[in-house]
Amino acid sequence: MNAPISSSRSPPLTHGLGGYIFPDLLEYLKDNRKCVIYCATIELCWRVYIYLLRQLPPGRERLRRVRLYHAMCWPDENEETVRMIRDDPQCQIVVATVAFGQGFNIRVLLDSLMVGVPKTVAQTLQQAGRVGRDQSSNGRAVIFVQSSAYKSAEKYLAQDPARRAQAKHNNKSLSTMNNEKALMLSTMECLIAFFNKLYDNSGETSRLDCIAAKRRLPCSNCRPQFIGPLFFPPSPLPIGAPPLAAFTAVDKPPLPSSTTTSGAAKQARKLTKAMRATAETELRLFRERVHRYERDRVSHGYTPASSYFPNPAITSILDHFLAISTVDNLATIVPKWKHRDRHGSALLELIENLQGTFARDLEAARLQKKAANRAKAKAKKRHADESDDEMVEEEDEVSEEEPPAAAPSKPATRKRSALEDTTNEEPKPKRPRAPLLSAAAVAESFRPQYTTRTRRRPDQENILH
């Protein structure tokens, strides 16, 4: 395996595979290289596809830039996707299942991004081999690994080899793990040398790491020892063609969050239901003030009051209420609020006043709860002491009035039969068992208990006589 491909495992994903956001992909997609994104299921394909569309500006061009390829698409639609990724410079991304890796030779593909670890090492290499077929280009294959996959690999290798099959059967997290896959996830040696050893590939440099073999592109394990920059240029565009639109979430500033780590502090940074209702009421009153101030600035009076401070903006502020401390935080949380320049300072002042009120209420509630717990503990201790004193007094009275009781005699040991009646009631006399009937008597009991009558015609009676 000496193709010009940089094989790498990404750091553990910052998001799960069951959600609807995949920001780790954007770090590679912003390079504007033609790539295929492999997903394990069609349902995951759809979630990744919808997420990428939402990161691009509205319009039909995003449907041209991002395409789907899986077995549920119409055959002519899949053929059109293959044609576009090969010939259309504006088509950059194909979100596909493993079906895209069978029988294609698309030399313009540069990146292979695998969302989640494939089932086998062979499938991993097959998906990585879709790119880098042009020897003059720098291909890149990246596996986005969940942190749980690393843990499962360590747990699998820690098992006794003779018991790994049983461990896979008993542990659901190990059901998709195998020996080669676990070694690939846990190895610290050169990934390319690992694959060459696994498949017994020949060559003078096949068993050497990327630095010793002087490969043009190192793997992720050899990258720290690699000297020099790595270049992954974008896919070329025709002269005069418009540049590809940037993904909006690539350089999006993070939302403000609490810097505390303790559980109690995290709980304190979250609004209670009563506090949220109070803050929402105050924000709606603030919207009315903004409406009264701004309505004279418009040329008509038909603009609804809710448009001056929309409900989605109020909800976003409530979700991050206790983490807001500057106007920049407001710009991050409500970037599309058009009255922020004139009313942002007043809104921040209102939020800070409410934060102070909530902080005092939380502290008072904490002290009240602490005092109640202290009083409860004292009452419990006092009750326990009084109970001990009463027990001591009762023991003293008994010892003075009554002589010591004789030691109880040892009961006779007798093993009780399993079906013996242990109740204190008198046993009821058993009814005599009914005699067994013969087969003829049983058959007779199923017959009718009355005599059947047969009505004969006169001519039949003459015949009988």
UniProtKB/TrEMBL annotation:
SUPFAM superfamilies assigned to the protein according to its UniProt record, in alphabetical order: P-loop containing nucleoside triphosphate hydrolases (SSF52540)
Gene3D superfamilies the record matches: P-loop containing nucleotide triphosphate hydrolases
GO molecular function: 3'-5' DNA helicase activity; DNA binding; four-way junction helicase activity
Domain Helicase C-terminal: 21-185
GO CC terms in record: chromosome; cytoplasm
PROSITE patterns (alphabetical): HELICASE_CTER
Keyword DNA damage listed: no
Keyword entries, A-Z: ATP-binding, DNA-binding, Helicase, Hydrolase, Isomerase, Nucleotide-binding
Stated name of the protein: DNA 3'-5' helicase
